[in-house]
Amino acid sequence: MSTLAFAGAEPQAGSTTKKSFGKTPDGQAIDLYVLTNKSGAEVSITNYGGAVVSIKVPDRNGKLADVVLGYDTADGYVNDKPYFGAIVGRYGNRIAHAQFVLDGKTYTLAKNSHDNSIHGGVKGFNKAFWTARVLHGKDAQSLELSYFSKDGEEGFPGNLNVSVIYTLKDNNALSIAYNATTDKKTVLNLTNHSYFNLAGQGSGDILGHVLMIQADKFTPVDAAMIPTGELRDIAGTPLDFRKPTAIGARINQDDQQLKLGNGYDHNFVLRAVPESLEFLGAARVVEPISGRVLEVFTTEPGVQLYTGNFLDGKTPGKGGVTYPRRGAFCLETQHYPDSPNQPRFPSVVLNPGERYHSVTTYKFSVEK
User: Model pTM greater than 0.70?
Assistant: First the structure.
């Protein structure tokens, strides 16, 4: 049974603790919820942007370390630019020229990535206050975050009711379930933007992490990082992670796609699975020294691999450390970038009367 303790209480195994995390510049209180499972793993989430602030999981010797980048205080998240740990919406990734057409009507969005829109616009879900509610379960700790996005917010149509449920299970899996309904036809693509370093946040680069992605194709991009519409075979390219390969093994190869992204910043087309299976095993990452393993399962058709190419060693993170270039990787489960403008891509349209439902699980374990 999940229990809720309040500020000042120390997290206990099998409990959820609520703490004060600071205030916004205009005085709004920001809370932090600490979910602790029965084995002692711990996930901290703030109601500001729904950000995953920390994930503490053991290495092969049982030593806990925080494996996601972030900030020690709410101020960091208020001023955050890399989207550390945030819920991303309404549309994760890029929409070309910050516009799309639905039923003959053109919707214009904020341009916050050159000529394009990225991650929901200037004030996306990562800058929203979410209403938090602790859910009680037998073998897991769950936190539900809810948000009402008004019709026209950042240019998107429809009044949207969104909920995101974070569940920390006793097997050290963090499940993220996204649900939404709308009163007007709209587009939606939600994801989480956690930056992982399985050796521990602030411990250097992730080039030695060994990655496997269950994908035979990817969506190549143009100079503006917008998909061309092609689904390209990864065979013979530096993006072939069908077999476990160190992230740094080919990241600096003389390859046009790598040059455009300054490293990996690409959407992988995940393999289809039988309808009877809810989750696709999308990716697996191993950090050889600590032995920590991250497996990603999702109902989404794609995953964006981003290797922290624009971290610059200047942003102060947790514990006073700064994060170097390629000091983390992201595996953002998603529909493909620019899908509203790409009729051959899986649809991201949500109609009134329908329910958006997507689940991604990040499962942590160790290799001895």
Answer: yes
